[in-house]
Design a protein that fits this description.
Blueprint: H1 3-9, E1 11-16, E2 35-38, E3 53-61, E4 64-71, E5 80-84, H2 105-117, E6 122-129, E7 138-149, H3 152-164, E8 169-173, E9 186-193, E10 201-205, E11 214-215, H4 216-223, E12 227-230, E13 250-252, E14 255-258, E15 265-270, E16 277-280, E17 282-289, E18 292-296, E19 298-299, E20 305-309, E21 321-328, E22 333-337, E23 344-347, E24 350-354, E25 360-364, E26 367-369, E27 376-380, H5 384-391, E28 399-405, E29 411-412, E30 418-422, E31 426-429, E32 432-433, H6 448-456, E33 461-467, E34 472-477, H7 489-498, E35 501-506, E36 515-517, E37 520-521, E38 533-534, E39 537-541
Parallel strand pairs: 1-2, 19-22
Antiparallel strand pairs: 1-3, 3-4, 4-9, 5-7, 5-8, 6-7, 9-34, 10-39, 11-38, 12-36, 12-39, 13-14, 13-30, 15-16, 15-30, 17-18, 17-28, 20-21, 22-27, 23-26, 24-25, 24-27, 28-29, 31-32, 31-35, 33-34, 33-35, 36-37
Length: 544
């Protein structure tokens, strides 16, 4: 039967009014059959118990199902408020620090008193973080909010009055706070790839080159995918590198094209849908020429800019992972392949151009330009220019090597049937919730506002992992709207575990969260402009 007709015919709807469920695909009465009706079972561990939850499953192609889960669809809206940025008060540890959403309680109370004196209905609220696998949690600090409003328009009007009075803030929906008593709604889509019956291929794609961004739907259309989700973190701001470049490990058809944010988790997939798993990877590279070896700093990224950090010991401010931060290093050696783009990055420094045999064909300064067919290059900046000049001689070989290692320190050499996309934090390990937010740079000492906004607040999320049956599970959760609240990182882990995942990792979320089925975006991306162009995507391809 035609897979599109099968997808339209094989629909299962389940209604539940309780609170954890088997993997959606496990609920199916059978592939290619239709069933509908109420059932009494457990739902997702989100919000208050007893919420209505519906699950609709359809088959997209042999071995691939899509399940739409809507929880709390019959509940009333929650109020809006205005969250005010808090300057460092007189009692603050750093009174000169710029305004932030979360600060010490003394500074928050000082601002609250000021706002009340100016006629605003202000309050101070303490914010606590739950313990996770690598961090004890506890009090993050306090936030300041003004008013409670029935509509976003009313909250924005209050924000305008605050700005007129010299304060900054934003209108926020209280359903995004992550309260366990909320009643929804949540809208979550789940792709399940079962390798025993899957006859297509599962792959990752970055598009025509690494340095440019494409939408998930465009990446899916280019390869005729039946389904796709956005994948790893990537450079968005040109000041942080080349937009679209993976901000972490990227392995495509077995070829490492982007180095790891050292120690962070990644999702590994095989083209036949089997053997998917989450692993932690590190990367180390070298350049050897004229009897001299030097360390290589990276692959296919703008020299000096290390998005999400996790690089070498001389990077600043840290060599450890630090999410959404661009570390810097003025003296680097970075290798480039033809997959980077039409031109390597331009700038001061030196570039050795290699032909397809690995011999130096040209040395150019300033750096930047096209590569020869089948060729590659090594760029040097700062003090590393002297190193490259010493061993890059025209006509002589220049050997560039990079090695990935797994969490046990063993060399990791993926086959041509393997793709790896970056992520973090880890969510589930060995079937138990295991959130590695501190290790992976999402809990940031001295910056509680980041932990608050990125980890604790509900946002759109994309998750991935594998269940006990070896099935690859790809999940998107809509958010940043009143129609779908999104998930906090702790909620993401709880959802992944409730769906039966034995291993799970968080992928890029927020405005990047996108799921495409049969050429159509089936979720609701949160960017006001619509679907966001991303760095790479995971594609489910039909049988060829």
């Amino acid at each position: 039967m035609n897979s599109r007709l099968l997808g339209a015919a094989a629909v299962l709807t389940v209604l539940t009014t309780l609170g954890s469920a088997p993997t959606p695909a496990a609920s199916q009465p059978g592939e290619g059959r239709t069933a509908a009706g109420p059932t009494r079972g457990k739902g997702l561990p989100l919000g208050a118990p007893g919420l209505t939850e519906t699950r609709t499953t359809r088959t997209l192609q042999p071995g691939v199902t899509l399940t739409r889960i809507v929880r709390g669809a019959d509940t009333a809206a929650l109020p809006w408020t205005v969250e005010v940025s808090i300057p460092g008060g007189a009692a603050s540890p750093d009174p000169d620090a710029p305004p932030a959403v979360i600060r010490d309680t003394a500074s928050a109370r000082e601002l609250t008193a000021t706002l009340r004196a100016e006629g605003f209905d202000a309050r101070t609220e303490q914010v606590r973080a739950p313990a996770v696998a690598d961090h004890p949690g506890g009090t993050l600090g306090s936030r300041v909010r003004v008013g409670t409003y029935d509509t976003e328009a009313a909250a924005n009007a209050a924000r305008t009055r605050l700005r007129t009075a010299g304060h900054t803030g934003s209108a926020v929906y209280t359903g995004w706070d992550g309260a366990s008593t909320d009643k929804g709604r949540w809208r979550i889509d789940v792709l399940t790839i079962a390798p025993r019956t899957f006859d297509g291929s599962l792959t990752a794609s970055y598009g025509p080159d690494l340095e440019r961004r494409e939408t998930t739907s465009a990446l899916a259309a280019a390869q005729g995918a039946s389904a796709a989700v956005n994948a790893g973190f990537f450079v968005l701001d040109p000041r942080s590198g080349a937009p679209g470049d993976p901000a972490g490990v990227g392995v495509y058809d077995g070829r490492p094209l982007s180095e790891a944010v050292n120690g962070r988790p990644a999702l590994v997939v095989r083209d036949d849908g089997s053997g998917s798993h989450v692993t932690r990877l590190t990367w180390k590279g070298t350049v050897t020429g004229h009897g001299t070896m030097r360390p290589l700093d990276g692959v296919n990224r703008v020299p000096g800019l290390i998005r999400n950090c996790g690089g070498t010991a001389d990077d600043r401010p840290t060599h450890r992972p630090l999410h959404d931060t661009t570390c810097t290093d003025p003296a680097e050696l970075v290798a480039f392949t033809a997959q980077f783009g039409a031109s390597t990055p331009h700038g001061e420094g030196l570039e050795a151009i290699l032909d397809h045999t690995g011999r130096v064909r040209e040395v150019r300064s300033p750096r930047g330009g096209a590569l020869p067919k089948g060729g590659s290059s090594v760029q040097a900046t700062g003090d590393a220019v002297t190193d490259l000049m010493a061993f890059a001689h025209v006509g002589e070989p220049l050997r560039v090597r990079g090695t990935l290692r797994d969490g046990d320190g063993r060399p990791y050499a993926p086959s041509r049937r393997t793709d790896v996309v970056n992520g973090g934090p880890e969510l589930v390990r060995d079937g138990r919730v295991h959130i590695s937010a501190a290790t992976d740079g999402m809990v940031q000492p001295g910056n509680p506002s980041f932990d608050y906004g990125w980890v604790l607040k509900r946002n759109p999320r994309t998750l991935a992992g594998v269940d006990a049956a070896g099935r690859t599970i790809l999940v998107t959760a809509d958010g940043r709207s009143t129609e779908s609240l999104g998930l906090s990182i702790p909620e993401s882990a709880a959802v992944a575990r409730s769906l039966g995942l034995r291993e799970a990792v968080n992928l890029d979320g927020g405005g990047s969260t996108t799921m495409v089925v049969d050429g159509r975006v089936v979720n609701r991306p949160s960017d006001a402009s619509g679907e966001r162009p991303v760095g790479d995507a995971l594609l489910v391809l039909p049988k060829r």
